[in-house]
Amino acid sequence: MSTETTDVDMANSWPAQYLQDHTVHIAVVLLFVAYPFVYDILVDLFALTAEMVLPEPRTMLTILALGLFAMSFDFISGYTGYLSFGHAAFFGIGAYFVVLGYNGQIPLLPAELPFMILMLMGGLAAALFALVVGLLAFRLSGVYFAMITLGIAEIMYVISQHWDYLTVDDSDPATGTAAGSPPDVELFEPVVGIPFIDPLNATVHPAFGETTFLGIDFGDPVIVTYLAMGVIVLICYFLMQRIIHSPFGRVMIAIRENEQRAKAIGYNVFYYKIGAFMISAFFGAIGGALLIVINGTASPDTTLFFLVTGFALVATIIGGLGTLAGPLFGYIFLEGVEEFLARRASGGGLQPWLQEILPGSVLNASVSGVTVDEGMNAFMTGHGEFYTGIIFVVFVLFVPIGMLGTLRARLGADSVGRWATTRIEKFRTESESEAGVDPNPTDTDADPESDSD
Question: What is the pLDDT of residues 230-283, one digit of tens each?
Fold first, then answer.
């Protein structure tokens, strides 16, 4: 009887325990869901002041796509210790696969396939390519591995600039190609959902007029795109997190900490590294596919260029290498800096705010022949990448474990989620103790010998 009671108690407490264990995840997800609505409210209340410090919802679309790519970079580089400097190759494969597949340029695939199918197939294509690259690159380690991956990505970048197959209508492949550009193919309208079964009523391209998601009319296609992309990124994040916390992921971490010891205790580290590389490539390609949702166009400079990987590395360092979620927050920080130093038409910024609050006499004041307004033009507007470089150097010197890594260190926990769970459990126990409730009750009426049965 006691065993049956315990089983019932566990069944009843499981949902509450699950919610408690994932309090931080739930809070972050709710914050992301609420962001575009909160942004509109704050802009209505504080106008340019809110625009100055908050990234636009449209900017958040780019953050989601590139943040997922940065997380895939962190999956291989942060958890195995192998820096993949050519990770943009997988990002580009995902982007180009969606465009070429939708245009009917991939053999054996009909044109205008659903976006979700093309996205997943692009991920698989990137994983297979990672298998080929990994069989070659993982024969080496350290800087040699990084240089091989970078070299392969650069080869793909040069090819993509001159290969006519990657475009249509004899246009220049260096300028890229758009999904739905052939005359006999309809406008590209990616739909999130189960292909042919349940599209969730979510057309996810901001150029379209669709404003409903899960049957709810939000009145803004950008919000619909944001929510639909957010679902994909969230699923990918939890899948990668689940893998990291599995036995497979523990071996990845063992390889990072001491590859020779992992090999000595019997693990075939070569196969584990190949597997991690393929998984990372799959999710990197998903990020590339989401870029097509935003732009509708794939080009060598926006998908295969080595700086695509470079920005992922910067975001990972700032957010926290080996934290998985850190790169996403790193991208939010970087894009926030970009918009903070942009003109109002590009998403608010410090200069438009100063121009609004400062009197004309101050703006027109001259110092050595240069007015204050001209000085702001010279040192603020459009120089986000310059200041991003300075911030990156500062982080490398003074915050080497990144924002999320530093937060974990300050909390004294290897996970913010575990820290929150511990604090909640401690608070609950203390509350029950103060109320005179035994936090670990026992069934005093039960026969003490019945448990042995």
Answer: 999 999 999 999 999 999 999 999 999 999 999 999 999 999 999 999 999 999
Cα(361)–Cα(364) distance, rounded to whole angstroms?
Answer: 5
Beta-bridge partner residues of 178: 297
Q: What are phi and psi of 216, to 5 degrees?
A: -100, 125
The DSSP-derived string for 392-422 is HHHHHHH-TTHHHHHHHHHHTSS-HHHHHHH
Residue bearing tokens 């004899």: 170
Q: How do residues 69-117 score in pLDDT, each as one tens digit?
A: 999 999 999 999 999 999 999 999 999 999 999 888 898 888 888 889 9
Of 320, 322, 317, give the one whose Cα is nearest residue 240.
322
Report whether pLDDT(209) > 60: no
| Dihedral in degrees, nearest 10, Cα atoms 425, 430, 431, 433 | 120
**What is the tens place of the pLDDT at every residue in 104-116?**
889 888 888 888 9
pTM for the full model? 0.87
- CA–CA separation, 65 and 205 (whole Å): 13
User: Are 32 and 230 in contact, with CB atoms under 8 Å apart?
Assistant: yes
Summary count for the chain: helices (H), strands (E):
19, 8
Q: What spatial distance separates the first Cα and last Cα of the chain, rounded to whole Å?
A: 10
The one-character DSSP state at 359 is -
Mind listing the pLDDT tens digit for each residue in 406-431? 988 888 877 777 787 788 777 777 77
The Cα–Cα gap between 36 and 269 comes to 44
Q: Mean pLDDT across the stretch 216-243? A: 87
Find the radius of gyration of the CA atoms of the chain. Answer: 25
Query: What does the CA dihedral 288, 290, 294, 297 come to, rounded to 10 degrees?
Result: 40
d(CA 139, CA 295): 37
Residue 200 is given by DSSP the state E
- Strand residues in 204-337 grouped as ranges (E): 212-213, 216-217, 297-298
Locate tokens 């931080």: which residue? 24
Q: How far apart are CA 318 and CA 66, in angstroms?
A: 14
Distance between CA atoms of 173 and 97, rounded to whole angstroms? Answer: 15
Query: Residue 274: its pLDDT value, please?
Result: 96
Spell out where 234-371 has E strands. Answer: 297-298, 366-367, 370-371
Which residues are paired to 191 by β-bridges?
Answer: 203
Strand partners, 297: 178
